Amino acid sequence: MRPVALVLVALLAAGCDGRLPGRPPQGDEVLRPSQELDFSVLYGSNCAGCHGPDGRGGASVELGDPVYLAFADDGVLRGVTANGIPGTAMPAFARSAGGTLTDAQVEALVHGIRTRWGKPEVLRGAAPPPYAAASEGDAGRGAQAYGVFCASCHGATGKGGAKASAIADGTYLALVSAQHLRTTVLVGRPDMGAPDWRSDVAGRPMTDSEVSDVVAWLIAQRLVFPGQPYPSGSVGAGERK
């Protein structure tokens, strides 16, 4: 019996250190979703669909744009990732806000975005407006500022021009926040050829108040009931009041 017992002990020892057939070697174990901290995996699963596979070319803000990252600090990235932006397509990802990611995973995303795509010196020598507006702009002044800085591309009324699409579109404006509009004016959309606040007019960067005023003018173009197919009081074919 003694030799048999020794063999059993040897087999048990082999099983404990992962050497039995069919047992994965140490380091090959499948992680639980909440344990995943690899930036590429987290970004690809949660962010790439809207922001592009490399932080560019998506439908929303280019997270891979160093100019954007020079405006948006880690607190901004963390807050938006964790809590989302109510009233827009940006969801909350943190568990504390109803999402699926742990605090550590949110931090991994913030750190990865900053270290992979950020360039701290990208705005050296510039005097950029603040990321967030200190106060609401004036829509009346915004119409004038729009004419100076935006109309040459987006058309005189914001309904589209030879160089760019409509920006004063009610449905589009219903889907984005005031901060999203401000961010777009500040950093542009490099993938679409849209310049940042410095380059709409050569040698004439936009001031903080001009950015705020243009945003106020755009917000004034929002529809009260976005997506309503017919003007108030009208009836479409086959429709009843």
Please, could you describe this protein's structure?
The protein is an all-alpha fold. Among the domains are: 83 residues, Cytochrome c-like domain (Cytochrome Bc1 Complex, Chain D, domain 2); 81 residues, Cytochrome c-like domain (Cytochrome Bc1 Complex, Chain D, domain 2), CATH 1.10.760.10. The chain has eleven helices and no strands. Helix 2 crosses helix 6, helix 7 packs across helix 11 and helix 10 crosses helix 11. The N and C termini lie far apart (92 Å).
Q: Helices and strands in order, then pairings?
A:
Elements: H1 2-16, H2 39-46, H3 48-51, H4 66-71, H5 74-83, H6 103-117, H7 139-149, H8 151-154, H9 170-175, H10 178-187, H11 208-219
Helix pairs in contact: 2-6, 5-6, 7-11, 10-11
Main sheet attributes: strand count, strand direction, barrel closure: none
Radius of gyration: 26 Å
- What is the succession of H and E elements? HHHHHHHHHHH
- How does CATH name the architecture of the domain at 35-117? Orthogonal Bundle
Structural class from helices and strands? mainly alpha
**DSSP helix count?**
11
Give the overall shape, derived from the CA principal axes. elongated
- Give start-end ranges of low-pLDDT stretches: 235-241
Provide mean pLDDT, rounded: 87
CATH C-level name of the domain at 35-117:
Mainly Alpha
Percent range for β-strand residues? under 5%
Straight-line distance between termini: 92 Å
**CATH fold-level assignment of the domain at 35-117:** Cytochrome Bc1 Complex, Chain D, domain 2
The helical percent reads 40-55%
CATH superfamily of the domain at 35-117: Cytochrome c-like domain
**Total number of beta strands:** 0
